[in-house]
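Deliverable D4.2, example record:
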Amino acid sequence: MIPLQYSSRLLKRYSFLKRDPTFIYEAVNSERAQFLPYHDFYPFCSSRDRSKLWKLHRSIPSNGAMLKPFIQSHKPGELVFMGLIPPTKGESSSQGPSFTYKKYKGDPLFAIDITRHEYMLPQADGKDSVIKCQDFRHFNDLTVDESSLLSLGKMMLHWLYTHKYCSMCGYKNDVIACGSQLKCTNHECESNGRITNVSFPRTDPVVIVGITNQTRDAVLLCKHKAPSARDPKRNMYACVSGFMDPSETIESAVLREVFEETGLDVLNVEYVTTQPWPFTNNIMIGCLATVDDKQPVDLGHDEELVDASWFPTSQVKQMLNSDMDSYGLLRDPVSGIGLPNDKTIANRLIKAVCQVR
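Output generated by the structure prediction step:
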């Protein structure tokens, strides 16, 4: 099974080290340190090789010269420790020994926000220009490992930017633990009188559901209203999805979302897998729902869909073998329907219904 984008476990995050100022100082100043620049929350990649993100390596003299003023002048929230990239087997000794702190080893990786630091923007180079990685044509070209770095850095920097002030008293938050926590600066704030007196990055859980019938020979594919209104030519059919409510189990969220969007009552829920989704700071929780297909589909509750139709699994299997179009969708030449590609959890769920590996 092809790994989903944004879900690699390569990076060793070592969250406990973020609170160690000695570690952070040594990691930032290490010759093995790497820095992943973001501009307006999007990183960069090479126009020639879009499988990898553009990073600044301190060991490269020109990179080191560019990083020095940033390290000296950056504001809190513009630098986040992401983790250590483990040494690879057979790593060249010419690169020097890996960074080591106590018993932890690897190249330190930091996400940096260069939006205010225009001098750090990559310069155009006719041979190998660097471009901003900001749409799905670029995201799909990245390796799973690289897409996972994009996801983590984007989520962290966006959270820091949108949570500058305490939600309880309105005072400014201090960025602590190298960008992984926030603490209210108002010592009289109610938040500072509790054991849990810091804020942590926000991740919103979303259930996404592949729907099948009791004989598992049909798939309910759904066309969402908002994307269709933005660009009718996409004609994308996918899965039911929605945010979980407070104090709601995954199973309850699946039952609620399927009923709200399609009017169908769910008989059974099966968990499949998860996928981080950095564009709205979500964790997508993938499930399969079995329903009685004799029930009528009713789109009149919250009216998020413009269509929800049953398709035989045999037809959907053929659609899954279609070529990818300019939208990054698997475009069926017969029906004209676009399905999510194999880097998405929606594709994984549709395949699960059709029992395609």
